[in-house]
UniProtKB/TrEMBL annotation:
Organism of derivation: Serendipita indica (strain DSM 11827)
Keywords tagged on the record: Signal
Protein's name in the database: Ricin B lectin domain-containing protein
SUPFAM superfamilies: Ricin B-like lectins
Organism classification: Eukaryota, Fungi, Dikarya, Basidiomycota, Agaricomycotina
Gene3D superfamilies: 2.80.10.50
Ranges for domain Ricin B lectin: 31-139
A Pfam family reported for this protein in Swiss-Prot or TrEMBL: Ricin_B_lectin
Superkingdom of source: Eukaryota
Signal peptide start and end residues: 1-20
Cited InterPro entries: Ricin_B-like_lectins, Ricin_B_lectin
Keyword Signal listed: yes
Length: 170
């Protein structure tokens, strides 16, 4: 599968809430039937896009439990850049959440009703290679002006609220 950087990632607020957390699901704009999915909750599980399953726990993403983190499995498994490798197309995996782990810190930069999911402190953002009808991988890619639109996320609430809740301004 060839990497296609011209994708918008869209996050929609899921109606469910657990404790103080808010769960979202994330979809690429090229195929609204695909959702960001974890194959399971274990260290090294590579995030992909696959068919949406309507509230399946492997597609629920917690954006609020800890500022700057994206997590699953009740906040125990975090989105993690594999080995902290700062290189285009490095995969994003689940890894046990650890305070201070810079490979697990994300910020959402608001752009009106959209936000960019950027690896905190790095010039890399979250991207996907989804094409219509096909599953795809979730990776990081260089955060450059020409790729800016390929990494936008949208939530069921305004992007500036998502950015504030994610710790982008802390």
């Amino acid at each position: 599968m060839r990497f296609t950087p011209n994708l918008l990632l869209v996050a929609s607020l899921l109606a469910s809430r657990a404790s103080a957390s808010s769960f979202t699901f994330i979809q690429p704009n090229t195929d609204r039937l695909k959702c960001l999915t974890a194959p399971g909750f274990y260290n090294g599980a590579r995030l992909t896009f696959s068919d949406c399953m309507g509230g399946q726990e492997f597609q629920n993403i917690d954006t609020e439990s800890v500022p700057g983190r994206l997590s699953m499995a009740n906040g125990t498994m975090c989105f993690d850049v594999v080995d902290g490798i700062k290189s285009n197309q490095t995969a994003i995996q689940l890894w046990e959440c650890a305070d201070g782990n810079i490979n697990q810190m994300w910020e959402f930069l608001p752009t009106g009703q959209w936000a960019v999911a950027k690896w905190k402190g790095q010039d890399m953002c979250m991207c996907s290679n989804v094409t219509s009808g096909a599953d795809g991988n979730v990776t990081i890619f260089s955060y450059q002006a020409k790729l800016y639109l390929s990494s936008l996320w949208k939530a069921g609430f305004e992007a500036h609220v998502l950015a504030t809740r994610s710790g982008a301004f802390t």
